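Severity: low
Component: inverse-folding endpoint
Summary: output formatting inconsistent between runs
Steps to reproduce: submit the following structure tokens with default settings.
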């Protein structure tokens, strides 16, 4: 469970998020919507402790047995180790490395089992394990970026516009993979305008000029 309370975010003196509160429960797909510049990317970065200064409370409970703890002072690596997985809008793949190398480079414990699971979710990648990421389409790269993040065995996935600019057939594959992960109990917070995904959300959260509309 991720519980964000009264979050403000700043780039230098400029405030980009205002009093944002939201929750993502295990097995829940929350889709974050809003115009360009509304603050969707900033919210995901804030949750990962990247690039932006924040005020407010971010509580994270790794599973039902664990006690919720405040993570807003943790650095990015610690948040990732605790189970927050993030795929940036620009995907940040190693484009000179192959699919398999991109997966292995992210792997911690249980790498073999995690790789099987990631490739089962994205069967299209199985046929191109030896291909360099630079030679893949945008949609294939997006699948690889998500698969790579799955190699860290996240409990919560934060995805920034995974379907943007991607062929509809690959959007369907990505949507189906995300729905499977949700069934497995992952919590998903996805910034996304594409209706193929948004229509399957448990909850839509609309950001307008850095504020959650309706709160
Ligand atoms: P998009 O869909 O265009 O990515 P978004 O909803 O993700 O939009 P953000 O990228 O989070 O919006 O931007 C929110 C606000 O923060 C905007 O006013 C933007 O100009 C500002 N902003 C984003 N990144 C930076 C940065 N690195 N430095 C300064 N201001 C920034």
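Observed output (run 2 of 3):
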């Amino acid at each position: 469970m991720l519980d964000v309370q009264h979050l403000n975010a700043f780039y230098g003196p400029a405030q980009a998020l205002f009093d944002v509160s939201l929750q993502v429960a295990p097995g829940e797909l929350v889709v974050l919507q809003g115009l360009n510049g509304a603050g969707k990317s900033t919210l995901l970065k804030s949750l990962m402790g990247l690039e932006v200064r924040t005020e407010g409370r971010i509580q994270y409970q790794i599973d039902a047995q664990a006690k919720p703890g405040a993570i807003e002072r943790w650095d990015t690596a610690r948040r990732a180790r605790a189970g927050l997985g993030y795929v940036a809008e620009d995907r940040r793949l190693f484009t000179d490395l192959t699919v398999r190398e991109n997966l292995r480079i992210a792997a911690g414990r249980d790498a073999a089992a995690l790789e099987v699971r990631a490739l089962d979710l994205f069967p299209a990648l199985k046929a191109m394990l030896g291909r360099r990421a630079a030679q893949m389409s945008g949609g294939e790269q997006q699948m690889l970026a998500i698969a790579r993040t799955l190699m860290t065995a996240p409990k919560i996935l934060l995805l920034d516009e995974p379907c943007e600019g991607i062929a509809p057939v690959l959007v369907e594959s990505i949507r189906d993979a995300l729905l499977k992960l949700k069934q497995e109990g992952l919590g998903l917070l996805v910034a996304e305008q594409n209706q193929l995904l948004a229509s399957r959300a448990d909850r839509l959260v609309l950001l307008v000029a850095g504020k959650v509309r309706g709160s």
